[in-house]
Design a protein that fits this description.
The complex is a heterodimer of chains A (107) and B (119). Chain A is mostly beta strands and 107 residues long. Chain A is 0% helix and 50% strand. In chain A, the strands form two sheets. In chain A, strands 2, 4, 5, 6, 9, 10 and 11 form a seven-stranded mixed sheet that branches. In chain A, strands 1-3-8-7 form a four-stranded antiparallel sheet, with no helix packed on it. Chain B is mostly beta strands. Classes of the chains: A mainly beta (107), B mainly beta (119).
Amino acid sequence: EIVLTQSPDFQSVTPKEKVTITCRASQSIGTTLHWYQQKPDQSPKLLIKYASQSFSGVPSRFSGSGSGTDFTLTINSLEAEDAATYYCHQSSSLPLTFGGGTKVEIK
Amino acid sequence: EVQVLESGGGLVQPGGSLRLSCATSGFTFNSCAMSWVRQAPGKGLEWVSTITGTGGDTYYADSVQGRFTISRDNSKNTLYLQMNSLRTEDTAIYYCAKTLGGNYCPDYWGQGTLATVSS
């Protein structure tokens, strides 16, 4: 099983600040790494697919990078509506797995 | 517009059964693998099961293997999850999700249905 380790677990950020979340895979997964945003009491929404491709309708302030075992989600100029928990997910091999999540709070 | 709508959750005693349904529209259902992902209260996301577009291949997490069965009716654009021998640790919101073409990454998710296993 591929284990995904996210850091940090929690981040408190002021609006317009830049946010960086990392996800490390326990073995190489190429670029089959995806990022989701989940707001309270809502279902997850896909932000970034295949490490760096923006999903349909996602604001341009969200971007992803990385390959192999190390990946990053960046939120440029954070907005209040970005308060949420962010998850990475790998679809390289079964069982599919998710990172533990990073909660982003707005100061 | 892609739409995914789960139903069938509820309260059941340990050892009992539930059948979840997921009605879909807005995409070519029989061309897409579909998945169930769950989230225990206050916890993270856990993949449960995936079925290919034809229904010919199914995959399960070890935690549900032998107890849960995923299936689909392509004539009704509907996905199912039969959950038997339920345990308290199966309590969760169960999300149905369409997957990306050519990959099992979920792209569109439903709003979820809550299954509570408790005596």
